[in-house]
Design a protein that fits this description.
The protein is mainly beta. The protein folds into 3 domains: 72 residues, Omega-AgatoxinV; 35 residues, no CATH class; 106 residues, Immunoglobulins (Immunoglobulin-like). Helix content is 11%, strand content 33%. It has 4 helices and 17 strands. A 4-stranded antiparallel sheet has the order 10-12-15-14, with no helix packed on it. A 4-stranded mixed sheet has the order 11-17-16-13, with no helix packed on it. The chain has a 3-stranded antiparallel sheet with strand order 8-7-9. It is elongated, with a radius of gyration of 28 Å. The two termini are 51 Å apart. Its main location: secreted. InterPro entries: Growth_fac_rcpt_cys_sf, Ig-like_dom, Ig-like_dom_sf, Ig-like_fold, Ig_I-set, Ig_sub, Ig_sub2, IGFBP-like. GO terms for molecular function: insulin-like growth factor binding. It is found in: Secreted. Keywords: Disulfide bond, Immunoglobulin domain, Secreted, Signal.
Length: 286
């Protein structure tokens, strides 16, 4: 009995309470049930677990489950990386092979459908929602509907003012988040009709992304001319409302323009946004 107690204290120092079997067989080596003894009194208390609680590798103590994107044990044993949390399962991303990388098992949410929270925030899946619930203890947070929250369009990436030279190309970009999905159109100054109209040197392209329920739209002007200068509007709309962002294009003649004026997509006196700053723009979608 004294030997078991000493072994238990030593094992609990490493965050577990599973004792080796008296016969000397190690559970991790044999992988058979009954090869570890449980001492609940030695179980450490698991706190601040975003993915919820799971049993440790010998089914004794409750410990933090691995969250979405964390490594896991593909065989479900939990002996090395640990087990995935609530509503998560351990999977291999076979697509990694296409990039010449060796896929590693990661925790993936069983349901990838978005949900709308009572705080009117869209969560990428039920697992992200449950993480938010655990982080907001004491707050009443529930799912109001499957799918994203319905919202008026929100322009996540605004087109930026540009200074360019006659004969060069110009591209404005606009990223919009909305559900139902938004339609995006471009207009210039106070003109009534949407671009490109019948102008062959102006084109508009749109596609979904970069995130779900987003739309990216580009306005391209090839061989920009003096007459192309003006204010351009990105207008996004769905059945709930609309949003507008604008950018100004200044066009200088090729003879008079210094090299520093060639396609400057940043407003004077401003610095280009960093990747981390752009990621913060998506704070309403988890």
């Amino acid at each position: 009995m004294l030997l078991l107690l000493v072994l238990g204290l030593a094992w609990s120092f490493h965050g577990a309470s599973c004792l080796p079997h008296p016969t000397g067989l190690k559970w991790a080596e044999e992988g058979a049930e009954g090869q570890c003894q449980c001492v609940p009194q030695l179980c450490p208390r698991a706190t601040a677990c975003p993915a919820g609680l799971v049993r440790d590798y010998c089914g004794c103590c409750l410990e933090c489950g691995n969250a979405e994107g964390q490594l896991c044990d593909l065989d479900g044993s939990g002996t090395f990386y640990g087990r995935c949390g609530e509503n998560l399962e351990c999977q291999l991303d076979i697509q990694e092979l296409g990039y010449g990388r060796i896929p590693e098992p990661q925790c993936v949410c069983r349901s990838q459908g978005a949900v709308c929270g009572s705080n009117h925030i869209t969560y990428q899946n039920i697992c992200k929602f449950q993480e938010a619930v655990r982080e907001r203890k004491g707050q009443d947070l529930s799912i109001t509907s499957d799918g994203p929250c319905q919202t008026v369009p929100q322009i996540k990436h605004h087109p930026q003012d540009q200074v360019n030279v006659s004969g060069h190309d110009v591209i404005f970009m606009c990223e919009v988040f909305a559900y139902p999905m938004a339609l995006v159109e471009w207009r210039k100054d106070e003109e009534e009709f949407a671009l490109p109209g019948d102008d062959p040197h102006i084109s508009v392209q749109s596609r979904g992304g970069p995130l779900k329920y987003e739309l990216s739209s580009w306005l391209q002007i090839e061989g920009v001319r003096k007459a192309d200068g003006g204010t351009y509007f990105c207008i996004a709309h769905n059945k709930l409302g609309n949003a507008t962002a604008k950018a100004t294009l200044l066009v200088a003649s090729a003879e008079a323009a210094p090299p520093s004026l060639f396609s400057s997509p940043v407003n004077p006196g401003e610095e280009a946004p960093t990747a981390s700053e752009e990621e913060e723009d998506y704070s309403d979608y988890y």
